[in-house]
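ZP: hey, is the iron/sulfur cluster complex queued? I don't see it on the tracker
AM: it wasn't, my bad. submitting now with these inputs:
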Amino acid sequence: MNDHETEGADERARRAAEPPTPSRRDLLAGGLGAAGAGALGAGAANADGSGAAAAPEDLYLPEDAWRDRMRAPDDGKRFGWVVDTRRCFGCHGCEVACKAENDVPLGQYIRQTIYHDHTRASGAVARIMVPMACQHCEDAPCIKACPCGSMHKGPGGTVQVDYDTCSGHGACKEVCPYGAIYIDPVANQAVKCHNCTHRVEQDMEPACVETCPSGALYFGDLDDPESSVSKIKARLEAEGALETLRPEKATRPRMHFAADADHPVASWEPKVPREGESYANDAYSVYSWGEEGFDGSNDSEQEDE
Ligand code: SF4
């Protein structure tokens, strides 16, 4: 390791050891006292100072604080996604491309391919693969909870992070119903899918879309009937094959999933992280295959051959 690398490693270690900057909400709540990137995570105090864990909606700010940021710029575009889970075969090419394109560190993910293992009647284990990332919600909880004004609607109405203002307080992560945000341990800032904005601005596709060898990922302008994402969305809608994730959250996601009738979104959605969580290294069911009782009761379902 040369001097420059040693110096860089020392600086990263020093910054990682530093407690996070308290947010305005921390101060209003009388100080959380919790250290680490998840300052608003487990153990976070309620605004009443009771010490009880805050419910995600308790982190929402008054509408005046986020109304302008929820308004999409008037650029004539409405970007969105279609994910055809029936085509994904779990190569993880999208994850690798995303990590390379966006310099995502080891142990963190902007996108992750969710596995859902289920047991067939024959006893054979089968698997569904679902590429997962930020849903770019129309009614985005992360925007409603962000106290420093960082989370906002960007190009095409997608949800973006302003890195000039993000202080890594983590409220966005606590309220995201899909576990789509991680707090970078070095920069102490929120990170999530931004649709490879730097590529889209140059009329390129996001790195994951361009890399996917099975044609499972589509991104583009949903208001342009000639875009590939609009065409596939129209076809799949006509087939009745499109669903969104956790509609009960009322976030109106811009990501639409095509799933087999035998394995609708409801069959695998329990595998998707929830509020306060992020994609994780140990998310794959392969790690639980050896556990006693792996018979489909939790992670899987019985099905006829
Ligand atoms: Fe925000 Fe999570 Fe919705 Fe993405 S999926 S827009 S991070 S609430």
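AM: back. Residues 3-17 form the longest helix (15 residues).
ZP: great, adding it to the tracker
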